From TrEMBL:
PANTHER family: BNACNNG10540D PROTEIN (PTHR31672), F-BOX DOMAIN-CONTAINING PROTEIN (PTHR31672:SF2). This is F-box domain-containing protein. The lineage of its organism: Eukaryota, Viridiplantae, Streptophyta, Embryophyta, Bryophyta. It holds the Pfam family F-box. Coiled coil: none annotated. Residues 45-98 form the F-box domain. SMART domains: FBOX. It comes from Sphagnum jensenii.
């Protein structure tokens, strides 16, 4: 109903906004055709186009974010309104935006799972993403790169607004790990002004001579700076760095020398976290859930019994505390489908931890663990779009982000 109502309002504005007539008419026509193709009712614009502004604003407030992102492009007035601080605050009271999960991408589109609406979206990428994939996310922004290849390039974009920027070249010849953080700071004014925002990208990798280097990109200066000396090269592998409580964390590689590394962004220094790792652990994955750092992996116990466990980091005691163990029968069913050459892949979003084993032709099996209710459930294969493309070489599968219209790339 909200979509029909907005279509009617747009048609009415064609007559009233002469300065935007060409732009609005084209948008309205395309929108109306799309509504008709989907078999949705289009209301009479001469009647519904006279809605009071206050009611129209309420309609916009109740639209899902994906619909709102499309609607704002229809006319300049709406585009301006949805970015005001008043609209943002009101919408936050009505909608509790749930995270989206980037499963895979092509050079033109992202395939994301909307955990709030339990549906899938195919979101266009506003630049040519050939050989690129999402390597990090923060504050509604996605970082693309051809990481794990020589002389990588990077892009950052807001998929909801389709705004993007290419980051300047870095010194890094080959990337080992990438992390990203989005920072917001409220202005100290009366009345409070809009919060200023910026983002940083952490890259640790190798130079051509194979020596290690750390670089940090700052969107404020649009430049890279050299960070603290990394740990020895043997300790950095192809894992993403997670931002948790002001620190970037990543696991070492190979797993035979498994330990937890941390990078203090303010101090510009790497250090090894003094915590004993569960051993021996197979396919370890680091995940972050609402400020909690967790470790997921497999252990082989007595009589060759394989179990999958979840641990949480107790930073005060400097130890990993066992949080959950996958039920034995469920674990057997999951392990049956494991592929020796495909490691366990884990990611977290909201209250859920996802465990999956991507292969060349499918994304299953996939299990979900609910941290709040302490329950396990399968992610139904029927929910996966049939057109979901295969994973690219080196591509991460399952990167969570919170979609936002107000996250700026500049």
């Amino acid at each position: 109903m909200a979509h029909d109502l907005l279509a009617a309002v747009v048609s009415r504005q064609e007559e009233e906004e002469e300065e935007d007539e060409g732009e609005t008419a084209a948008a309205s026509s395309a929108f109306g055709e799309g509504m008709a193709k989907r078999g949705l009712l289009v209301l009479d614009p001469k009647i519904w186009g006279k809605l009071p502004e206050e009611l129209l604003e309420r309609v916009l407030l109740h639209l899902p974010l994906q619909s709102l992102a499309r609607m704002r492009t229809i006319c300049k007035k709406w585009d301006h309104y949805v970015f005001t601080s008043a609209f943002t605050k009101l919408r936050a009271q009505i909608w509790q935006q749930k995270p989206w999960i980037v499963m895979t991408s092509t050079e033109k589109s992202l395939f994301v799972y909307d955990s709030g609406l339990d549906t899938w979206h195919q979101v266009p990428i506003p630049f040519n993403a050939h050989e690129l994939h999402v390597v990090a996310a923060a504050g509604g922004l996605l970082c693309f790169s051809n990481a794990w290849f020589q002389w990588p390039r990077m892009y950052v974009c807001n998929p909801m607004t389709q705004k993007w920027r290419r980051l300047p070249p870095m010194n890094t010849w080959m990337i080992s790990t990438v992390g990203m953080v989005y920072e917001e700071e409220a202005a100290a004014t009366t009345p409070p002004a809009a919060a200023s925002s910026s983002f940083k990208v952490l890259v640790c990798g190798r130079l051509e001579d194979h020596s290690m280097i750390t670089e940090v990109y700052d969107s404020v200066t649009n430049s890279w700076t050299i960070g603290g000396n990394p740990s020895p090269a043997r300790k950095h592998g192809g894992h993403a760095s997670l931002w948790c409580d002001g620190i970037f964390y990543c696991l070492t590689f190979p797993f035979s020398t498994l330990c937890l590394l941390a990078y203090n962004l303010r101090q510009g220094a790497w250090y090894e976290v003094p915590v004993r790792m569960p051993a021996p652990i197979m396919s370890p994955s680091l995940v972050e859930c609402k400020g909690r750092l967790m470790l997921v992996g497999g252990l082989e116990e007595e009589h060759s019994v394989f179990v999958i466990q979840i641990w949480e980091l107790d930073s005060n005691k400097h130890e990993w505390v066992e949080l959950e163990r996958m039920p034995s029968q469920l674990c057997k069913d999951f392990v049956t489908n494991m592929v020796p050459s495909k490691p366990l892949s884990c990611f977290a979003t909201g209250d859920f931890i996802f465990l999956m084993i991507p292969s060349s032709n499918n994304y299953m099996p996939a299990l979900m663990f609910n941290l709040t209710h302490r329950t396990w459930d399968w992610w139904p294969t029927s929910d996966f779009p049939t057109e979901l493309p295969e994973l690219n070489i080196g591509q991460s599968s399952g990167i969570s982000f919170e979609p936002r219209l107000d996250a700026s790339v500049f």
